[in-house]
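User: I'm designing a mutation panel for GNAT family N-acetyltransferase and want to avoid disrupting the core. Could you give me a predicted structure to guide residue selection? Please restate the sequence first so the numbering is unambiguous.

Assistant: Good idea. Sequence first, for numbering, then the predicted structure tokens:
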Amino acid sequence: MGLGDLPIIRAIGDFFRSAFIREKPFVWEPGRIGPKFDWLDHTHILIREGPLANREMEIVTEIFPNKANVFVSMNGEKIGRTYIERDPPGVGVILWDIAVKEGYRRKGIASIMTYVIFRELLSIQKTAFFKIRMMRLMKPAEKNIELQNVGIGVIGNRLGFTPEFNLDRLLKPDNIVSLEVLPAKGEFPPSFKIVIKTFPLVLIAFVLDTDTLKPVDDFRTYVQLTKDESTIYNWVRRGLIVVGNGNYWLRRNGIDQFVNHLATDEWEARDFRRKVRPV
């Protein structure tokens, strides 16, 4: 048992939070991060909506002291995986890799895997903080740069994660050196290559639709945004531009959104909320 797990320490912490930190009351506003599905047994689900509606999928989770994995299969074919670091063990939950087989991407599989493993870890841990690790450093002159981490980026946005980088500062017009639109490739949408004056020098970002919060596939939208860098800055502040090569953290202001998207009812949401610690 760690020092923070002692009842007297928790009580003191709760007292100071209630006495000196005014938190907004929790409001149960259920949301979803992927298609609806029903559990058929402990390892199989039936997807109820979306492109894979009425398809069965096998989900296998593995929980170890310092890591957790998810593997999904359909008709005996492995189509996805998710890797989690538990660092420190039993507290930290760091999502660092999601892969979905080509032909199955952007159909909700990454969302389902994330939903399942985050819920399972929350159910067995006394406390938890959450991070998404997507950092990849690039050089401004680097060629053949491609958008990555689209699924993780969209999921993080819906769950209330915010960038580790201060994008307000990094993407101010006077810090932008150049802005290039990268065309769509395969199942990935177009994206921006943004070269900036300060670390990390290069950001690769994509745009979310204001209504669906799904990636925008229309190349013209990206071209239009490049005509006014201040517009990009405003879209960043609204959470409509997601950086695909930076880390994301679950901070205090995102916890309610996080638990509302993972819980199945208000009681469970409040239980999850008591366990989650902001980064």
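For picking mutation sites, this is relevant: Residues 179 and 227 are 10 Å apart (CA to CA). Residues 109-124 form the longest helix (16 residues).
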